[in-house]
Amino acid sequence: MNSITRFSVIGIPSIIGMGIAWVGNRIIKNEKGLKDRELELKLQLNNKFH
After folding, report:
1. For the whole model, what pTM was predicted?
2. Which of 37, 17, 35 is nearest to 25 (CA)?
3. Half-sphere exposure of 28 (CA within 13 A, CB side)
């Protein structure tokens, strides 16, 4: 019983924290990729009009 309580107090919040950190990391990586793609599309659009 004591090990189950210890897991509930330490393990579950740490798993939740790691999940939140993972989601934050994915958002940051996707944002960087989207900015690169936006710049690429703007460059292509400018080349069409010149």
Report:
1. 0.61
2. 17
3. 6
